[in-house]
Amino acid sequence: MRALRSPLAKTILSTTTVLAAVIGVTLTGTSAQAATPSLPPANGQFDYQIGGAYTPASSVSIVDRDRSSSPVVGKYNICYVNAFQTQPEEKSFWTGSHSDLLLKNSDGSYVEDPDWKGEYLLDTSTAAKRTSIAGIVDGWIDGCQSKGYQAVEPDNLDSWTRSKGKLTKANAIAYATLLATHAHADGLAIAQKNTTELGSAGKNTVKFDFAIAEECQFNTECDAYTDVYGNNVIEIEYTDNRRSAYTNACAAQGKTISVILRDRDVVPSSDPAYRYEYC
């Protein structure tokens, strides 16, 4: 079960952002990033801020924020994008002119994530639909690049497992490959988010560069990621699980990969519910 996320910015990028992406210049006026993406520093201190941005500790070297937020100068920045499902606040966008890109039940209703109300699954079942969806999400990736992010984190890669059999792993791999190709063209690295079911296909077929794994120690899945990506893995454990998941993770791989403990809602540091530890 993944963390909660903050609302995203408007789906349609501003003219300035689009122009910046096209001409290869960031909104801050700096040169576009190199074609070869850089990876997060292995075992660098990580801060997961998708529930709200705040100033990270000086010791933090990697920051992950929602695409509606700006990156942090002097850090390695990862841009969060909900790429396989919709955000609740974007309902009218998707159910309006893009209804054909949403997965539907036999009665015509939208297939909804059983755990996340208001998140509809995108229909990646055909090449034509994958191309159309990627055309939208690629625009978001361009926005990440133009803001100055170094990498992108497309979430809900495993949505086919919640599709009631309407989508397949092959559909997910084909669509993810489109996103990875575009991210790399933008000079961005791209992360595999969870989904041990991919095995080595995430790196070898999709061309993901590193992995972000939630609760992999709690679910005893961590080796599945490090076997493929080595120490280019970021692990997030949550405070609503047993604490031993975090302490065991620190003991097992805390010296080789980035391991943190966060509150489930990943709230900003100003919130009383905020929890953060790093080993």
Structure description:
By secondary structure, this protein is an alpha/beta fold. The chain has one domain (34-278): Alpha-Beta Barrel (TIM Barrel), CATH 3.20.20. Helix content is 27%, strand content 16%. It contains seven helices and nine strands, in the order αβββααβαβαβαβαββ. The chain has helices at residues 15-23, 91-95, 127-147, 169-185, 201-206, 222-229, 244-253; strands at residues 46-49, 62-66, 76-82, 151-155, 189-193, 210-214, 233-238, 258-262, 276-278. Strands 1-2-3-4-5-6-7-8-9 form a nine-stranded mixed beta sheet. α7 (244-253) links the parallel β7 and β8 (258-262). It is globular and about 50 Å long. The two termini are 22 Å apart. The model is unreliable at 6-34 (pLDDT under 50).
Largest sheet: 9 strands, mixed
Q: SSE order, as H and E?
A: HEEEHHEHEHEHEHEE
CATH class: Alpha Beta
Strand order of the largest sheet: 1-2-3-4-5-6-7-8-9
Strand content: 15-25%
Low-confidence segments, given as residue ranges, are 6-34
Terminal CA distance reads: 22 Å
Whole-number tally of structural domains: 1
Mean pLDDT equals: 89
Indicate the CATH architecture.
Alpha-Beta Barrel
Helix content: 25-40%
How many runs of DSSP E, i.e. beta strands? 9
- At the fourth CATH level, what is the homologous superfamily? Aldolase class I
Keywords: Signal
Organism: Frondihabitans sucicola
Signal peptide: 1-34
Protein name: Glycoside-hydrolase family GH114 TIM-barrel domain-containing protein
